[in-house]
Amino acid sequence: YFTRRGGESLDQYFLSGRQAPWWLAGTAMVATTFAADTPLVVTGLVAPPLAPPSDLERVADDLWAMGLTTEATALELVRPALDARGVARAGTLAAVEGSRVSVAGVVTHRQRPETANGAVFVNLEDETGHVNVIFSRGAWVRWRTVAERAPALVVRGTLERGQGTLALSAEHVEPLALGATTPSRDWH
Fold first, then answer.
1. SS (HEC) of 119-139
2. DSSP 3-state assignment of 188?
3. How far apart are CA 146 and CA 153, in angstroms?
4. Residue 122 in contact with residue 130, Cβ under 8 Å?
5. Under DSSP, is residue 72 helix (H, G, I), strand (E, B) or coil?
6. Residue in 119, 116, 128 with CA at minimum distance from that of residue 169
């Protein structure tokens, strides 16, 4: 049990999976080097060896620190698995033959206009662009738990073309595990 100057308990702090190894390594180095009346001071000449972060962890670190990533996005990193499932990119939807398609992306916002007769609109963003997804009242009731909480989604549905726009009418929804994402702007 460690305390900081002023009696503040360190176990009051929540440490993420990436922060905990660094903090624990630092406390291990000082456990034998301080007296009872000395404030907690981390000393040591050599940092403990830690595994390098995975590509998804680097993206998560960039999003946490800057709110954006300067290299590949998390969606780009999982794209090979999405391609194997036949999930289309947003930028290719205009050329897709037929009307049934699956798309994946990070939710950028959710909207429920009063004039939409119970429909909910969700915008997904992948590495090539945006997809507007329309949930009918019934589809929203069925998929609400997933569509409202997951930061990234895979949506299968019918592609609707009209007046120069494309939208996907949702028929099936599942969460997409990406790790860290930026928060969506919901219900504005």
1. CEEEEEEECCEEEEEEECHHH
2. coil
3. 8
4. no
5. coil
6. 119
Q: Provide the whole-model pTM.
A: 0.65
Question: Judging by DSSP bridges, how do beta strands 165-175 and 129-135 pair with one another?
Answer: parallel
Helix (H/G/I), strand (E/B), else coil: 53: coil
Q: What is the mean pLDDT of residues 43-47?
A: 71
Residue spans of alpha helices (H) in the chain: 20-30, 55-66, 74-84, 137-149
Structure tokens at 18: 């990436």
pLDDT surpasses 50 at 31? no
Burial of 176 (C-beta count, 10 Å sphere; 0-12/13-18/19+): buried
Pairing of strands 100-111, 185-186: parallel
The CA–CA distances, whole Å, from 4 to 38, 45, 165 equal 10, 22, 58
DSSP 59: H
| Residue-wise pLDDT tens digits, 129-179 | 899 999 999 999 999 999 988 888 999 999 988 887 889 999 999 999 876
Strand partners, 150: none
CB 174 within 8 A of CB 146: yes
